[in-house]
Structure formats: structure tokens, C-alpha cells
Design brief:
Blueprint (H helix, E strand, L loop, with lengths): L3 E9 L2 E8 L10 H10 L6 E6 L12 H6 L4
Parallel strand pairs: 2-3
Antiparallel strand pairs: 1-2
Length: about 80
């Protein structure tokens, strides 16, 4: 399971902008995850360019998780 939250996805023709939050600045995937997201979205037909921004506002917290994710992690 990846520790991030997509904040916003903007589609401007063939360019996609993604704002995402990690669970913490020290997240072990902080260096690799933006590139992984960029590569995966770039594979979508019609996408020519992808811009991924890491944002910290609003900050991540457990309340932003779906009930299914909380259940899977035993947080209920």
C-alpha cells in the first residue's frame, strides 16, 4: 500500500497536472513515488505530459482514508 493522497488532478488537453500529499516528509517512497505516478499516468492514451507536485496543505491525516483502507490496515 502506498502512503499518499491525490489532492487534485487537472486535465488540460494532453497535459495532466497532479497534486498529491504523502503521509509525511520522511515517507520512504517520497523520492520514487512522484516519478512512479508520472510514468503510470503518462501511459494513459491521449496524455502527452504529466506534472506531479507534492503538496503539504492540507496535511494528511487518517480521516482522509476511506473506510476500506482503514479496515485493511486494522485501524477500526
Amino acid at each position: 500500500m502506498r502512503d499518499f493522497l491525490l489532492q487534485k488532478i487537472e486535465d488540460r488537453s494532453a497535459t495532466v497536472g497532479i497534486r498529491m500529499t504523502l503521509t509525511a516528509p520522511a515517507c520512504p517512497a517520497a523520492q520514487s513515488l512522484p516519478g512512479e505516478v508520472r510514468r503510470q499516468v503518462a501511459q494513459v492514451p491521449g496524455v502527452a505530459d504529466v506534472k506531479v507536485d507534492i503538496v503539504w496543505d492540507p496535511p494528511w491525516d487518517r480521516d482522509r482514508m476511506s473506510d476500506a483502507a482503514k479496515l485493511q490496515l486494522g485501524l477500526f
